[in-house]
Amino acid sequence: MARAKDPKVRSQLLDRAAHMLRMRQPVTLRSLVADTGVSTMAVYTYFGGMDGLWKALRQEGFTRLAVKLAAVSQSADPVRDLAALGVAYQANALENPDLYRVMFDAGFELEDADAADETLHCLVRAIERAKTAGRFRDDVDPLELATRSWTIGHGLASLVATGPLPHEALSHGAPMMIALFVSAGDDPDRCRRSVERGWGRGAQP
Asked: Which of 72, 76, 86 shows the shortest CA–CA distance to 195?
């Protein structure tokens, strides 16, 4: 009988590979498993080889992001929810800085591109809810606004998680989101209250 796969071993190998890439260390079968307590066979067991590892590595970043976004509770205020999703995005980047770098490296293929796209479409759905609620103008393109929102979150997350800015710089996200959503038609005062609620609660239930 084949032994059951241990998800902890899989995560361990993915985290190690991402860290080695960030440190610009050569990632080979032997270097990957060194001091991990598992053999090189584990790479074949869990990924089918190094090619499978690279695909799984980038996918894992989006998988963890999807889990983080799914933890954001949906409220009656879609603008609050958009802000909370932004906080969850940044939290995922800070918790997984090595994987975060790999997520957007087009040099690695994805196992499931649709699953990765879903992390953007959850923003699209929240924006559609905001339009239905009359918070944004009818002519607002949900995908376009979601992309702009993602750009704000990604820029801050990158500069803090993998760049030169301190954690405190994340506070700039709220006023930038407020400006973006007001430009989409939301009332300035109402928008500020919604974003501040979402920014404060983040991914809390």
From this structure: 86
Number of folded domains that form the chain: 1
Q: Is residue 134 part of a domain?
A: yes
The CATH number for 195's domain is: 1.10.357.10
Nearest CA to 152 out of 114, 185, 183, 128 is that of 183
Single-letter amino acid code for the residue at 129? R
- On the question of pLDDT at 83 being above 50, the answer is yes
In tens, the pLDDT along 148-166 reads: 999 999 999 999 987 789 9
Contact 119, 134 (CB under 8 A): no
The pair of three-digit structure tokens given for residue 91, joined into one six-digit string: 């939290």
**Domain limits for position 65:** 7-201
State the pLDDT confidence band at 67, using cuts at 50, 70 and 90. very high
Q: Is residue 1 part of a domain?
A: no
pLDDT value for 4:
63
Q: DSSP class of residue 3?
A: P
Stretch (H or E) spanning 145: helix 142-161
